[in-house]
Amino acid sequence: MLQLRKYQLGLLALLSGLLMGVSWPTHGFAPILFIAWVPLLVVRTYILRNSTFFSRGAIVLYSFITFLTFNLFTTWWIYYSTLIGALLAFFLNSLFMALVVGLAHIVDKKVMRNKSAFISLIFFYVGFEYLHMNWELSWSWLNMGNVFSEMPTWIQWYEYTGSLGGSMWIISINLIVFSGLLRWIDYKKIRFTLLPLTIAFLAVLIPVLFSYHIEANYSVDKAPGNTLNVLLVQPNVEPYEEAYTSTSSQLVHTILQLTRENMDSNTDIVITPESSINRTMWESSIENYAAIDSVRTFIRQHPTISFLMGASTCRLLASNEKPKAYAIALSNYPGKYYYNYNTAIFIKNNKPIEFYHKAKLVPGVERMPFAELLKPVEKYAIDLGGTTGSLGTSKKPKVFAINSQAVVAPIICYESIYGELVGSFIDTVPSFIAVITNDAWWYNSPGHRQHFSYARLRAVETRRAVVRAANTGISGLINEEGKVLKKTKFYDKTAIKAQVRLHHKWTYYAQHGDYLGQLSVFISCLLILIAISLRMRQKKLITEDETAH
Fold it and tell me: Which residues, 6+ apart, have CB-to-CB distance to 452 below 8 Å?
């Protein structure tokens, strides 16, 4: 292998991060990610072959350079909310990714004896992505499989695997390409390189052809199902000042005005963004609020129309209900606690209001991670122009029945990047997915565009139409194949009509969730146990040898 200096290794690690960045939606070219890991793999192999010249943590250090570059390149816009919070997010996410590569490197050396082409990386990294979606510091924005959100024709098979299948595909291709490059470096003969590169080409081509086959045989126009007429309202309320200087009645007045201007006699449901009513309302007395009364009055005038709205609500704990760490003590009432919620409320004529509380909360924004330990610093939670602090959550997914043959799955903002969570809302009842969000805090940056784009993955995974109602961002309609049929412009105060097809197909992924992630975690744990066992056996043999002498 070529002799490389440490600064050259650093440049290779930097190159990997840049390649990952330029592949990312919405302005990147996704197929670049098939080779983006290769420079980092060169660094890893060089360290492996020259281990005496490097400290034990060298691979983690170089991997950190890669992933910090990747995080900064793709999610720099987080700093619009808070510089300190953004720096913390960049550092921690990059560190977690680098540690996973380092752990895979150690285990591969012990278990595979460097004969596996680093295959353990597939399971460790996909297992990490799965675990990263299911713990207190979850930030799954940069899962590798998300990269194809702008190329849904390539990944129609996500209905079987979810986006983690894409992550597994990407890392596998990188390893195959790297094995071909390594053979060229070692032997300088093209015949040694052709086989891995041919395999890599076929490993890209076959899933893409399979995806085109699925798409060709899945026609939205021919698929069975009824339609529903939806009105998506985008009020364009500035979230930091205007949202708080305006009363709830004024905010609802804007929504109803846009509704009246854009609805027609066929409108079945009006969907408004997250935090449409951001003054916290007690759920037990919600009918007494003027803003809700305005919506009720409108519905009485148009009794066939339902409303799905984002709101901030709170609930008083029952006397026998044990408060959790995110419970808030009620002033002047010792022993009384309540929960705040980021809520989707469903209002239908002559029916009680229904609630769904956001289940996947943004770490450090809507809930302090490890709340019991960090309760004293909760006041420093990041303000992203919505409900902040440690919020409560719904225990189970909930759908709202629009009529006897149609339900809507309410997905609140950040939840839309979690495929397994969105899939858990889906059953055999004809339905569609409604994402209500407030993307205004990202301003006109890649953030809101990436967020909209990721919803296309959820459409493919669940084979459900997805509508988005954004306060400021992009509202629109995405069909079951992940194609964008309608969308608004950023900073527009508007409303758009969308005719949504209802489907009852229950995809394999919606039924089974992130099984590839669970399998990867199991295999990773198994490899770690084997590595520990081999290490203990090695120590025992050394001890026995020393005793014998």
Answer: 439, 468, 470, 473, 474, 476, 487
> If you classify domain 227-312+342-511 with CATH, what class do you get?
alpha beta
Cβ atoms < 10 Å from Cβ of 99: 17
- Given a contact cutoff of 8 angstroms between Cβ atoms, the answer to whether 345 and 355 are in contact is yes
Residue 159 has pLDDT above 90, yes or no: yes
Task: Give me the residue label for tokens 């608004």.
Answer: 488
DSSP secondary-structure letter at 147? G
Condensed to tens digits (0 to 9), the pLDDT of residues 180-220 reads 998 888 877 777 788 999 999 999 999 999 999 999 987 65
Q: Does residue 464 carry a pLDDT above 50?
A: yes
Task: Decide: helix, strand or coil at residue 494.
Answer: strand
Encode pLDDT of 22-56 as tens digits.
999 999 999 999 999 999 999 999 999 898 899 88
* Beta-bridge partners for 486: 477
Residues 6+ apart with CB under 8 A from 449: 25, 26, 474
CB 423 within 8 A of CB 399: no
* Sign of torsion over alpha carbons 342, 348, 353, 357: negative
Question: 277 or 354: which carries more pLDDT confidence?
Answer: 354
Annotated domain spans of the chain? 6-217+514-542, 227-312+342-511
Phi, psi of 516 (to 5 degrees): -65, -35
Who's near 118: CB < 8 A, 6+ residues apart? 41, 44, 104, 105, 108, 112, 175, 178
Per-residue confidence (pLDDT) for residue 44, from 0 to 100: 94
Report whether 128 contacts 100 (CB < 8 A).
yes
Determine the Cα–Cα distance for residues 342 and 312; give it in Å rounded to an integer: 5
Give the tokens for residue 521: 């975690």
Tell me how far apart the alpha carbons of residues 379 and 459 are, in angstroms, rounded to a whole number.
Answer: 37
Q: Please give the angle made by the CA atoms of 354, 440 and 97, to the nearest 5 degrees.
A: 95
Q: What's the length of the chain? A: 549
Q: Kindly state the helix (H) or strand (E) to which residue 204 belongs, with its residue range.
A: helix 190-217
Give me the amino acid identity at 455: A
3-state secondary structure of 134: coil
Q: Which residues are within 8 A (CB) of 275 and not within 5 positions of it... i.e. 6 or more apart?
A: 239, 243, 310, 311, 312, 342, 385, 386, 387, 438, 471
